[in-house]
Amino acid sequence: MSRTAERNPEVRELLERKYRHGFVTDIESDTLPPGLDEDVIRVISARKDEPEFLLDWRLRAYRYWREAREPSWAKLNIPPIDYQAISYYSAPGAAKDAPKSLDEVDPRLLETYDKLGIPLHERARLAGVAVDAVFDSVSVATTFKSRLAEAGVIFCPFSEAVREHPELVRKYLGSVVPYRDNYFAALNSAVFTDGSFVYIPKNTKCPMELSTYFRINEQNTGQFERTLIIADEGSEVSYLEGCTAPMRDENQLHAAVVELVALKDARIKYSTVQNWYPGDEEGRGGIYNFVTKRGDCRGENSSISWTQVEAGSAITWKYPSCILRGDNSTGEFYSVAVTNNFQQADTGTKMIHIGRNTSSNILSKGISAGKAQNTYRGLVKVFPRAEGARNFTQCDSLLIGRDCGAHTFPHMDIAHPHAVVEHEATTSRISEDQLFYCRQRGLDEEDAVNLIVNGFCKQVFNMLPMEFAVEAQALMNVSLEGAIG
Amino acid sequence: MSAPLLDIRDLRVSVENKEILSGLSLEVRAGEVHAIMGPNGAGKSTLAQTLAGRDGYEVTGGSVLLDGEDLLDMNPEERACKGLFLGFQYPVEIPGVSNMYLLRSAVNVQRKAAGKEEINAAAFLKQARAEAARLKLKPELLKRGVNEGFSGGEKKRNEILQLAVLKPRLAVLDETDSGLDIDALKIVASGIRALRDGRRAFVLITHYERILNLVSPDRVHVLAGGSIARSGGAELVGELEASGYEPFLREAA
Questions:
Q1: pLDDT, position A279
Q2: Fewest C-beta in 10 Å: which of A439, A480, B86, B235?
Q3: For chain A, what is the radius of gyration of the CA atoms?
């Protein structure tokens, strides 16, 4: 968006309505030239003053990745990606002058966060949210560290955790998603530049909701953040993640890895509202969102719950999963994925039942409009020793218009004779009767569609923390603009 | 005499190229209650759907004025905002959309169209609860998804609840009395009676005289063969009971 446009409120409103977060922040940045080899990885590691073990791990991941192939099993049409055309490191300003407090943060950067509505500064305190904002590759500011520190909670940029708590990083990094897991996880392991780190000590309920906001700003950069959350025995945490990126004609790659570890009696709730730039009406540009998210219910009675609202990105490839290792552990996956125009989404979950009396619940709502393709792909696996395993899966798809597609691939791999596994699936078109009913009461067609779609997603939105639920609802309306008529 | 609130002249409507209404004329003045009766397939529901502006009902001739404005030129939501309410024969379920949320949205868009401010949320809820109580509609149904899991009678009473809250100029009720037991029918009828005033008009489409005994219409029309075959006062209801629609079908043919 040009500066003139930003000054003209009407133009701005119009542009922002199309994609509200499509502005570029014009600041000096320290960006590595495009290309990937071992030297690039060494530079990244050196800039971050990383210990030897981490560099070794990165290099092993890189060597694995070089030999690996991109996965092709998803129902996605992915144009070839030139991994040598991507820059793997971009930091705002010179790396040496990294900000030590909010006062030192470039005001234009703060303005960017302002536009995104991220509650930094005091507003964050009012909202009760601690924010770790990742701008391109470096964590800019982490709020509320002190209040969290009182509770013993560690919430910091990943690179800081590497410096301050190397023993925790070493113990848990890659323990849920090993670098050999898949192509994009290997790439991330080799080149990840930052992300968030959370540790909740034993028997501690995190005193506030933790939140990270990701944003890709630089052109031709990839974003490879790494998030690691460890909930120690008897602890509890709710974590929120939001993402946006400016409008660009080129595609940009985002390959993140999120690892969650829940020890005995611990609970982790992880919520995502994903609003990366989806590309334009013709399918030009947009983010490739290739993300590996997995939680490990490592201890007895632990639970991990994923809630996601996937509204953006040109292509989404993402399966937040739970390994139900501990006896009596539970995994949940609540998802709304909306695709419009030429967007493609292949998303779902894996529930791996290993422990006894483990249970999982899957609720997936897919909405497809325009020429978009929306796929649910899920796996429920029950191991031979998983006595008393239970799963309930519900997948609902809603189609708007005639040129879009909805697909469901539920896989079940059940090796215990008494496991109880249920699956329900529906596919429906938005009904003329419902639309006409709303219009007869005075709502215009667009409002009527939004109302019906939001109703369709309600069960999932109810799982989101309050402030996210409101954002999610607004996001649905923006995403489906022009879907009818 | 004042101009009619609803003025239908020589209306012709086709559905899938088949003419259903062939020159129907009807005048309804503010404050009046009109009943439209007739055999199945006579075009009663076609009339209701056409007035509300449903796609697929093609107007091939004639005119419809609401309060002097060309109704046929408006889309369904504009008609609603001009004060036309359709009570549906089969109210649709909209899962996940709270009954109160839809109704409040409707109230607010209609107020906005009339240049008024949005209604205060607390005031709205109070009003809706009071109307629901009058219609003996369980309070939990207000919070549930629109018509989601409602019984047939609850759906019809919910239509009357919307009518009572939206307070339209013209209410067209399409077989709102069908499928109601006698107690529910009395509740619906008293709901309609409570809303009768000098400004509002009703068009009741029905098969049965029993609701008309409870509401007492000013005019009764027999719709047969695509147009009004006969009009009269409330006494026509008794006559129809005795003779059935057969004589009108012959007249129309």
A1: 84
A2: B235
A3: 22
Share of chain A above pLDDT 70, in %: 77
Q: Which residues in B lie closer than 8 A to residue A435 (C-beta atoms)?
A: none
- Name the residue among B97, B103, B106 with its Cβ closest to that of A452: B97
Residue position matching structure tokens 């995104």: A116
Separation in Å, CA of B153 to nearest CA in chain A: 18
Eight-state DSSP code of residue B148:
T
pLDDT tens digits along B10-28: 999 999 999 999 999 999 9
Would you give the distance in Å from CA A42 to the centre of its chain? 27
Token pair recorded at residue B199: 């400004």
What residue spans define the domains of chain B?
Answer: 6-92+168-252
Residue A221 dihedral angles phi and psi, to the nearest 5°: -105, 150
Q: Looking at chain B, which residue has its C-alpha nearest residue A443?
A: B77
Query: HSE of B72 in the Cβ direction (CA atoms, 13 Å)?
Result: 17
Predicted-complex ipTM score: 0.96
- Distance, in Å, from the CA atom of B118 to the CA atom of A322, rounded to the nearest integer, reads 46
CB B94 to CB A437 under 8 A?
yes
Tell if the CB–CB gap between A432 and B113 is shorter than 8 Å. Answer: no
- B137: confidence class by pLDDT, cuts 50, 70, 90: very high
Q: Which residue has better confidence, B54 or A146?
A: B54
With an 8 Å Cβ cutoff, are B77 and A431 in contact?
no
Chain B residue with minimum CA distance to A432: B55
Query: pLDDT tens for residues B184-197?
Result: 889 889 988 999 98
Q: Which of B77, B91, B101 sits opposite A442 (nearest CB)?
A: B77
Whether the CB of A82 is below 8 Å from some CB of chain B: the reply is no
